[in-house]
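Quick review question:
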């Protein structure tokens, strides 16, 4: 079992003992997503796969927060914000803007990208380095602006 998965199961036990129902629900959601991935793909997930799952769950929360805020449902947005914060605890520390810029610049020079047509090459180099540590939509926008400018 992976370090992240072990930590998650330990935190589920702590939340159960502590009676923290909101946290417990979110932790169980993460655990269920990991278990579903294992069943669907007939694999035992490693930390890299767990990172992808967490990243996907966080992205879903961000989209929901945006939609709820647009609809004026701050009560529902607040629930999603709490869940996102718990999910983020299991992701590596977020990258700063300078680190992101440095990774993108290196990927552009390494791939020899010269236009937006080469965006896939650059994303292929950048994604493994920033997965779970930065918003991929934001990264994509930065790369696009650098390649078109």
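Suggested answer, residue by residue:
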């Amino acid at each position: 079992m992976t370090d992240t998965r072990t930590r998650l199961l330990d935190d589920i036990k702590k939340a159960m003992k502590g009676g923290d129902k909101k946290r417990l629900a979110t932790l169980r959601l993460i655990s269920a997503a990991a278990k579903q991935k294992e069943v669907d793909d007939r694999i035992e997930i490693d930390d890299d796969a767990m990172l992808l799952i967490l990243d996907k769950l966080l992205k879903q929360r961000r989209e929901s927060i945006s939609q709820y805020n647009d609809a004026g449902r701050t009560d529902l947005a607040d629930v999603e914000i709490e869940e996102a914060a718990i999910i983020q605890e299991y992701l590596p520390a977020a990258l700063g803007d300078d680190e992101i810029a440095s990774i993108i610049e290196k990927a552009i020079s390494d791939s020899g990208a010269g236009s937006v047509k080469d965006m896939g090459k650059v994303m292929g180099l950048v994604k493994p380095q920033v997965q779970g540590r930065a918003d991929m939509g934001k990264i994509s926008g930065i790369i696009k602006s650098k390649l078109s400018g």
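Why it works: The first helix runs from residue 3 to 18. The chain has two domains: 3-88, 97-148.
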